[in-house]
Design a protein that fits this description.
The chain folds into four domains: 110 residues, Carboxypeptidase-like, regulatory domain (Immunoglobulin-like, Sandwich); 61 residues; 115 residues, no CATH class; 76 residues, no CATH class. It has ten helices and twelve strands. The strands form three sheets. Strands 4-1-7-8 form a four-stranded mixed sheet, with no helix packed on it. A four-stranded antiparallel sheet has the order 3-2-5-6. Helix 8 runs antiparallel to helix 9. The longest helix is centred in the C-terminal third of the chain and has 42 residues. The protein is globular and about 90 Å long. The N and C termini lie far apart (84 Å).
């Protein structure tokens, strides 16, 4: 029992010592004095973690009661014209020496992640320069043979780049560099030159199904990189069908993956709330109402202050309150439409009316009304212009242009 208590105490003290603070030493020969910032990525923005003034070309960022979460950090030189990027990952003490004339060869000690990061940066810089040369030569090629040669060279260099990335991922599966490379990697395309509509559909479904293969929603390190948020935006804005049911189903799946990582859960719920509180497409207000009922109203966002909670609640209840009014309008239009049809039959003349058509959409039932112009005594031969109008679950009414179809 005493040995077990000693072991538990040792583990606790070791973890406490690692969480006591951080120390980042920075030295440069490019400046003797000036204000220097220690910044980190969070989504698309750059946040300041610390700042200090150079004294004879050196500065120390240090806090004894705070830690620096893992991610990509940068030193911003005086004048804010140059930055030096580096990794912080489970290393409380790091030393950096950098010169603005040769940032790629900066020296970082105390972190085993950074030599691999610098090796990758040097390789990318070299291959990127060669690829740009081949691209420029391809653009000025005058013969078919020259174009084919430069295209072949460009493809070869790109393959070497992908092989280098895959090698890093294979040999360093737990490194921060691997997390970064997986987040940047797109799924392979099944049909590089699709010939049929089926080929295009297979490409789309395969790409969508494997879009998140390289990203773990239980690893918050990916949040402090410039790659995660653009990927999230691409998925929800361009790749995922803009149907509320599809979005809601996918959100619940992503949040299930992130449930054990508070930082990832916080980032996802904050972004999703901001994205759908003022939806870009009609009908997506149902997504925000779902977020409110399942997560906000259930106390899943304790980090929000009272003002933020009040704003979200007011918006949600306002949208839910619109719903009864929408269905009242729906009932009135139905009554008016049948009265119009009756008058058209009695008068045996042309008449402008609404023809109602209730149709199920996913788990919802939306009411569609088509503007119909009757021209003959026999309504089955009626012709007209169709302007379908839908009432969403929240009561919003909106038009969706659609080819005319006979409803009678």
């Amino acid at each position: 029992m005493r040995k077990l208590s000693t072991l538990i105490l040792g583990i606790f003290l070791a973890s406490t010592s690692l969480a006591q603070g951080y120390r980042v030493s920075f030295r440069t020969s490019s400046f003797d004095s000036g204000l220097v910032y220690l910044i980190y990525y969070m989504g698309k923005s750059l946040n300041i973690a610390d700042s200090g003034y150079l004294n004879n070309g050196s500065v120390v960022f240090q806090k004894n009661n705070d830690t620096l979460p893992s991610g990509i950090y940068s030193i911003v030189f005086p004048g804010k014209r140059h930055t030096a990027d580096f990794f912080i990952d489970r290393s409380p003490e790091i030393s950096i020496q950098a010169d603005t004339n040769d940032l790629l060869n900066m020296k970082v000690t105390g972190s085993p992640e950074n030599p691999l990061f610098q090796q990758y940066q040097l390789f990318i810089a070299n291959k990127g320069r060669l690829m740009q040369q081949e691209k420029n030569l391809y653009n000025v090629s005058t013969t078919k043979e020259d174009s084919a040669l430069h295209e072949k060279n460009y493809t070869k260099i790109n393959e070497e780049l992908n092989e280098f990335r895959n090698k890093i991922i294979k040999e360093n599966p737990q490194s921060m560099m691997t997390v970064l490379l997986k987040a940047m990697k797109d799924p392979e395309v099944l049909h590089k030159k699709p010939l049929t509509r089926q080929d295009s559909l297979e490409n789309y479904y395969h790409y969508k199904a494997h879009f998140w293969d390289g990203v773990s929603f239980m690893d918050s390190r990916i949040l402090r990189t410039p790659f995660f948020l653009p990927r999230l935006e691409q998925y929800y804005r361009n790749l995922l069908p803009q149907e509320p049911d599809s979005i809601i189903r996918d959100i619940d799946e992503r949040m299930l993956y992130a449930r054990n990582n508070l930082e990832m859960k916080k980032f996802m719920l904050n972004w999703l709330t901001d994205e759908y509180i003022n939806p870009k497409y009609m009908g997506q207000d149902a997504v925000f109402i779902h977020l409110f009922n399942k997560y906000h109203n259930a106390g899943e966002l304790p980090w929000l202050n009272e003002k933020q909670k009040e704003t979200v609640s007011k918006r949600a209840y306002m949208q839910m309150a619109v719903k009864p009014r929408g269905f009242m309008i729906c009932a009135l239009i139905i009554l008016w439409s049948f009265s119009g049809i009756l008058l058209a039959v009695i008068a045996k003349k042309s008449f402008l009316t609404w023809i109602p058509c209730i149709r199920p959409v996913g788990k919802r039932r939306e009411s569609e009304f088509t503007l119909f112009f009757l021209k003959t005594k026999n309504m089955r031969n009626g012709k007209g212009i169709s302007f379908p109008m839908e009432i969403s679950t929240s009561g919003h009414m909106y038009m969706r242009p659609r080819p005319w179809r006979r409803l009678l």
